[in-house]
Amino acid sequence: MRVPESRRQDRAAITPSLPSRGSAERAGRRQPGATLAAIALDPIAWLGAVFVALLLGMPGLAPLFAWAFPEVSPPVFARDSFVALWLSHAAIVGAAMVAASALAIGLAVFVTRPAGRDFRPIVAALATIGQTFPPAAVLALAVPALGFGPRPTIVALFLYGLLPIVENTLAGLATVPAAVREAAEGIGLAPWQVLRQVELPLAFPAMLAGIRVSVTIAIGTATIGSTVGALTLGTPIFDGLAGNKLPFVIQGAVLVALFAILADMLFARLERRLRRPG
What is the percent of the chain where pLDDT is above 70? Predict the structure, then answer.
């Protein structure tokens, strides 16, 4: 039975054209090279490589620091490894930011619901107080209750990180178009489903921007935790200040700066990808 010409044309129109085997093999061969080139030109990859090299190879720079600072012995901080300092530093920042993000996002969602709108000025004021209260004062107040170690530092970073996340979450939720909410309600979604499936995904890039600010600030601020017994990249800084050993200060400060810059760049890239249309 002969198929009509018009039907053959329609079938051809909806049938995707497949690349030939040769073109597919050429594309496959080009992909690894293109990936390696992209990694080689990626500033985040280069910065990450430098950061890891310094974490692992800082003792190897002892001759350089000994030449630059002959009066300092030892020339490189050796009480703890820099990898252990970084892991502890990252764990403190991570714990504080997870707690701050959970509370800040929860409060922002609550004050944008009908039942919580009257509490919005109170939440904004409390978040502002947490941001303006000096972390050193929080440490001084927390040590008698929590003792020495990482816990007072986590509390200080937690309070210090609330405001950017609260403000950005509120801004993100405010940008969700009313027509989108109405359409979601029109198809029968419950209020919690509208929040979970519509509002939070649309507001997430703004929320991520607030988390990015809080994390970057926390990485730098966490160094003061070393004054109350927390193990951070600030430990060589304060040891260097106490013992008049400038190389220790330089080593800690460089690693903290690289850590903060690298984290900020990673968050910025994720934020751009989330905002990218399509």
Answer: 85
User: What is this structure's pTM?
Assistant: 0.81
Residues 6 or more apart from 224 whose CB is under 8 A from it? 135, 136, 139, 153, 156, 234
Residue 83 structural domain: 46-275
Residues ≥6 apart with Cβ < 8 Å to 206: 168, 169, 171, 172, 175
- Closest to 80 (Cα-Cα) out of 229, 266, 244: 229
Alpha carbon distances (Å) from 178 to 108, 114, 201, 235: 18, 15, 15, 50
Total domains, the chain: 1
Q: Are 231 and 84 in contact, with CB atoms under 8 Å apart?
A: yes
Domain harbouring 134, CATH code: 1.10.3720.10
| pLDDT per position as a tens digit, 89-121 | 999 999 999 999 999 999 999 998 888 888 888
